[in-house]
Each structure stands twice: as C-alpha cells, then as structure tokens.
Amino acid sequence: MGDQISPSILRAIEGSRISVIIFSENYASSTSCLDELTKVLECKDSKGQLVLPVFYNVNPFQVRGQHGSFAEYLAKHEEKFRDDINKVKRWRAALYQVSTLYGWHLGEGQESKFVQRIVEEIMNKLNLIPFNVAKHPVGLDSPAEDVKSLLDLGSDGVQAVGIYGIGGIGKTTLGKAVYNHISHQFEGSAFLANVREISTQSHGLVQLQEALLS
Q: Which residue numbers are catalytic?
C-alpha cells in the first residue's frame, strides 16, 4: 500500500490482456491501488484491455456512488492532496467508470463457487479452455513432449509437423495434447479437426476458414 506504483507493476499492467480488480471495504484506503486502477482504465481505453471488477463484500453501487468506507477514504485523500485535487478527481472518475463494467458481486461464503466461474470466464476469453483430449489420457505426456521438441517455439517463422499413421492410433488425440501444452504461448490459436472430411463437403472450405478466423 505504498504511495508509488513500481515500474514492474506498471509494465505488468501495460502488458496484460485482462485485468481483474478486486474491490473490498478498504480498497479506497490505498492510494497505490487507486493509481493502479487509473492506469488499468487508461490501458482499457488505449489498448482495448479487458477489465473485470470483482466486488467482494462490497455493493457495486457503493463503489459507483462512493458511499460508506469509500466516501470516508476519499475525503481523507482530498485533505491529504488538497494541493493536487485533480488526482482525487481522477480516482473518483475511475471508481465510477469501473463500477459500470460487467463483473461479479461476491458475498460471504461464495468464494469457491465464484472463483471457479471467474477462472473459467477468463480462460474462455483467452481461448485457454483445454480440449478434452481423452477419457483416460495415460501416457500422452511423453509423445507430446517429443512433438514439442520438433517445434522451435521461440522463432517467428511458420512451422509444420506431420503426425501420420493408420486410423485409430491416436493422431488427433496427440495433436490435441500438444495444442493444450503450447496454445497459451500464442496471442491467437485454433484447433481444426477433421479437415479432410469437412473440406470435401459443400462449402466445407468456407466453414473451415470461418472457424479459423473466429
């Protein structure tokens, strides 16, 4: 709860695709939290960063109207920063703006259920929901690592790896396992299965293109 945002936190905010802001009763007591909130909303406007507020035992209307503890802490900040009152005005505007965004309102005893929902939604927005590779994916890690070793994941070039064999030996299953291992390393990713079969159908290539672009 220091007065300044560290350079590492600034870099983390600027490099993030999603920011989750957790509001509690004492949130507004921290000037660094308020500065970070302002920075997050700047990145939302300039970089299209997704901002997800979580209201933990705090009503969103309390944040929006700056009532209760928020009113008390902001009044103290106005006294402390009376020579730089615009700073507090920016904090007030940021609190109002973030309280209007889609988010979650958590009450007591709801943590586990809501944490799971939040994680699932974030993973979905990042396209990180893993494929259901197999009912009993035994022994997949080793061949998946073998395939990954053939990929120069740090390069900027286009790469292709072929997995061939008779039907039913698990080529697609192995491909899904590799995808689950490496997809998080890329800004965008897609898994297209049954390309040969779909491409022979009417408008099949168009379906594949739409699936890839989506």
A: 36
